[in-house]
Amino acid sequence: MTTIQKKSLKVGSYVDTNHVDTVIRNYKRERWVHNSEHIGKEDSLSVWYSVEELEGFIERIKANGGDGIKMYFAAYPENFEKRPEYSGRQTIVMVATRSRQTEAGVANKDLYTNPGQILAYNLGSICPPNCGTGGQTKPPSKPGETGDADDWGGIGVTIVDRGAKGLTIV
Length: 170
What we know:
By secondary structure, this protein is of the alpha+beta class. It has helices at 17-39, 51-63; strands at residues 46-48, 68-75, 90-102, 105-110, 112-114, 117-118, 120-121, 125-127, 159-161, 167-169.
């Protein structure tokens, strides 16, 4: 009997708190401040989905022969009628993918369930405008716990110098 071993598609890795803090701070300084000025209000900094939603999306991906997810950076239209408070703000759109071997290597192709119908997920809870209330009072004390922080406190807290417009703490 011949056994065919499937090659792992894993490309990411777990990272530590310092890494997360560094990349969030870099984003805020190098992208967020300019995005916010461009749209005339504070741009979103995060998108939240429940585990239940993500598990459901992953189940649909597998049921349709997919094996991955691309997370596209995106922005809602200026006059987004479905959720006006999201208008102009950035988001992520998760698109199901199926890997294919090509001459150039592995390609992760967007997964269509019907002609013209991509399998995708969006419209999570973005912050801002949907941020918790209050600031951080304490970090988590044990692995698996969450702290008292909302999206504005804790990791990635950054002071951004906006020149003549003053300082912003995000």
